[in-house]
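Changelog-adjacent note: as of this version, every example in the card shows the full chain rather than a window. The one below runs 267 residues end to end.
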Amino acid sequence: MNGRLFRQNLYWFRTRLLILIVASIAWGLIGPVFYINFSSPLQVLVDSGAIPSNLLSFGSGSLFTLPGALTLMLQHPIAIAFMAVFGAAAAATSIAGELERGTLETLLARPLPRRSLYASTYLAIVVAMALVMAALLIGQSISVILLGIGDEVDLARMPLVWLNGLLLWGAFASFGMAASVSFDRSARAVGLTAGFVLISYFLEIIGSLWTDAAFLQDYSLFHYFVPGDVLTGEFNPLGIALLLAALIIPIVWALVVFPRRQLPAPA
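Full-length structure tokens:
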């Protein structure tokens, strides 16, 4: 890894990273407030049969328990969008974008191996995602403490939730980086990465809303991001193994393919 390039990448990320950290803390504050105000009335509606309970589930989350509500807010499209800024967009445009702009040759003209370029960029993206994920969880933790409902959830397990989320988005980022080193144009890498994230998300959500399609959740990476189970101590370690495999395989692909690629001349 090249330390100077790593720091430079973080410097380039600084504005959007700061915005996302602030927005993520604010979003994290909302979940427990929503749970306090709406869980009981919604439970009455479900008990009366007015609303099917599965319609109030979203992925692995629900509004009927605090861990479920925290999960729901972390799997909400807004939280997904926050993480996807780095986990999908920045990863997919990293190398392909440099190649498209004609700046990759300048970087590689220095004594900078391609694997070092890849590692420096990927680690900077992971650090940015780690900070955004931490901001989401910090916001949730602050809200839980201020509302006095800490007895409903074990906040000491929040670092494990952070690790679970970072593995999920690390897997998406490694896929995006693998796509980025494989194409000459960033549009193809972005399209492929965005498609992968959206399909995975669709399988998780449709499986949670439609009972007959519940089996589809097993094919979604989002299904193995389970903050509620982590917070209640019911987490299955197999999920971590699957996320690790999804993270490592694209990294191996990129480290094999990128150094061997014949790069086109700048346009």
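Structural remarks: The CA atoms of residues 248 and 267 lie 33 Å apart.
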